[in-house]
Predict the structure.
Amino acid sequence: MSDHAGLVSRLRAAWLSGRTRPLEYRVAQLEALGRFLEDKKQDILEATALDMGKPSFEVELSEISVCRSELNHTLNNLGAWMKDKSVDKNWVWGGGCQGWAGWDQWVPYHLLPAAGNTAGHSLHPQGPLWGSAHHWALELPRQPPPGAPHWGHRCCRNMERLVAEALPCYLDKDCFAVVTAGVEETTRLLENKFDYIFFTGSPSVGRIVMTAAAKHLTPVTLELGGKNPCYVSDTCNVQNVARRVAWGRFFNAGQTCVAPDYVLCSVEMRERLVPALRNAITEFYGSEPRNSPDFARIVGDKQFKRVRALLNSGRVVIGGQTDEKERYIAPTVLVDVQEDDPVMREEIFGPVLPILTVTSEEDAITFINARERPLTLYVFSSSKKVVCRLLERTSSGGFCANDTIMHMTLTSLPFGGVGHSGLGRYHGRFSFETFSHLRSALLRADGREALNGLRYPPYNPRRLPMLRTAVENRRASTCTLL
């Protein structure tokens, strides 16, 4: 604990001073993050290109633009979100008696570390502070926290350096800190007491974070990814499906937590879908994706070797080429994959798409429900009934029909996992609520003591009916048609 105890103590002291509570302070920090995005945009583009060859178009779209949208959404609404809200009161507390007030109040948590595993890049804002993720390198806040250490990762050197050196110049150094660390250092950091922990990464590391949080009874939000199913029904536009699935799977070379991880479809649909996927890949990246400026590389050597080993599952029908020196893995489609193959036992997190066949829609639902609940479930069908049946009979963190990834861009939708894919939610107002404590408050004047006589000893049974009438909610009257 001595490694970071001083830092944690300093950040907590800044929160206790009350400086982070006012709206003006939070707005100033959010605006500072906006300036960081604008001033360092070119540096961000260069860092992502050096670390993993991520196309600037993808960085602009999925990171900078989305982050700017989240920041602006928060700036537009933060004042309204922060307002105390009056609540209904029963007869005793609100029945014309003077000097009573009841409301709920959003109070920011004290110290909130955001943690992540290794790989990828993003400026996608998750929560009230920033953290590195196993699929993105930088995440920025939606509401300024009272103070939060941040730890990065070791394979994205350039982005890590940019965040560590530049970001503190924009934020209040007494209330925000950037800490770069690996798993061991992060584990020691978590020995300190925090008030809320946000983590995005793998389930295995998520368990470490949750175990550390349990020691101090610290609440957590975990975004743990997982294997996202993509069911393609026989009634759909195959060309459109192929483009949208290929884009979602091979965006950032497949290194996104919400990428479709495998396709479920009938044998007949597979025979139509594979050629359509081949055409879509050629349309996007040319006949040789290795030479395309629009196709990224795997973020690290360890990750490259892990994904390359997954190519031994099933049979390669598209792609399959690799280059260890460049950490290049071609956009790849696998068929004849078995349920127990390595590619189906872990999140792929690379440009590999297995296709498994099912005999029916019911078979697909059974297959999905027999596995851990995913972060996202995708369904493609021209039939609304098919989409609704999959929605109603499965469970997942999120759900998207006839597209991929784009549901994440809506600040009006919560984002998060369920079960094995995580817990908690964020994005837009949901981030504000997640990283704030909803505090109840009831105030009354110190007079009118006679009102309390009903509840004071010595108890008189004759008072009970009157007291129950005063404090109990009554069920609304209903009308039943026979």
Notes: Residues 117-154 have pLDDT under 50 and may be disordered. The longest helix spans residues 56-82. DSSP finds 15 helices and 16 strands in the chain.
